Amino acid sequence: MFKLMTDTSANLEPNVISAYDIGVIPFNYYLNGDERTCMDIAAFDGKAYYDAIRSGARASTSQVPPQRYIEYMEPVLKQGLDILFIGMSSGISGSYSSAETAANELREQYPERKIITVDTLGASLGEGLFVIRAGEMMREGADMEEIAREIINTRHKMCQVFTVDDIMHLRRTGRLSNIAAMIGSVLNIKPLLKGDGEGKIVCFQKVRGRKNALKAIAAKYDELVENAANQIVGIAQADCPEDAAALAEMIRVKNPPKQIMTVCYEPVTGAHVGPGALALFFMGNSREAI
Question: Most buried pick, 18, 29, 140, 146, via CB within 10 A?
Answer without folding.
Answer: 29
